[in-house]
Prior knowledge:
Elements: H1 7-22, H2 35-65, H3 68-100, H4 108-130, H5 133-152, H6 171-201
Amino acid sequence: MIKNKSPLFYFSLTVLLLALLALFGPEEKSLGANVQIVYLHGAWVLAAEVAFIVAALAGLLGLLLRKEIFHAWSAALGRTGIIFWLTYLPLSLFAMQANWNGLFLAEPRFRLAIIFAITGVLLQLGLWLFNISWLTSFGNILYIITLRVVFATAQNVMHPPPSPIFNSGLWNIIIFFVALNILAWVAGYFLTRFFLTLKTSR
């Protein structure tokens, strides 16, 4: 019976498991228990970027090989990426409030995140309405390239490079964060499968 469940069921189940796991994240010296929301917000936005990157790769394969299946995956992954990106924004606000007692909306990377959220939503809506396979793939390729170029040159205020987690030397935190990322990717996979079912039934 469980085999007939919608991918959204498994997506919701994975997100619930992810949220519960985040509650048991190892505390950090300066942020204490509030660092748990930072872990979750970090894993969530990385899942969004992974979805965008894989959408672009699938789109590139679709353009080169002229295979509709790759275009379909690109479309589904692009939609998954923008859902993750949109929902990462409130997590970011929550992390700001919990750890720094304020909402720093003028923070450069957060402003850029909002701009790319609005742009991404409009792009995905437009691609869905036009429903042209090659255009969807090209749009997803262009979007992630633009996003990475812009963020690579953006000023770092609350996001100091290199990664504070992977350069902490604290293996319990690193392993925990990797586990969160894997769960976020699994959730992204199920959401992508859901969008694929919508594509094939359209």
